[in-house]
Design goal:
Blueprint lengths: L2 E4 L9 E4 L2 E4 L4 E3 L10 H12 L4 E3 H7 L9 H16 L9 E4 L4
Antiparallel strand pairs: 1-5, 1-6, 2-3, 3-4
Length: 110
């Protein structure tokens, strides 16, 4: 299964997390890009982003992402997780064809 790994992220306090020049408001469920503009995310997209930011430089399997999102043992195929992670990646990295900057997929691990 696919595994997701994040770059170094600077954590400043438990309510607001920063990575690069992004600001993630955990209690308000908001994300702001380096220009200060709010980036709208669906609930599960925000959950994925906040968990990836909370666990920097760790590798998470599909099952771990599912559990961290609060899905537990509910049936959810890997493609659903891949699609959500892809949406988050596009929202924070844009549609650039360059290599992933923040969220990296490591295949065949986990």
């Amino acid at each position: 299964s696919d595994v997701y790994k994040r770059q170094v992220i600077n954590k400043t306090n438990s309510e607001v997390l920063y990575f690069d020049d992004w600001k993630i408001g955990l209690s308000a469920c908001t994300s702001h890009n380096p220009s200060g503009e709010e980036v709208k995310m669906m609930t599960y997209e925000f959950r994925i982003l906040s968990k990836l930011v909370t666990y920097p430089n760790h590798t998470l399997s599909h099952n771990q992402v599912r559990e961290l999102m609060g899905l537990g043992d509910k049936t959810s195929d890997g493609r659903s997780i891949n699609m959500l992670v892809g949406k988050v990646r596009r929202k924070i990295e844009g549609n650039s064809s360059d290599a992933a900057k923040y969220i990296k997929t490591i295949r065949n691990q986990g």
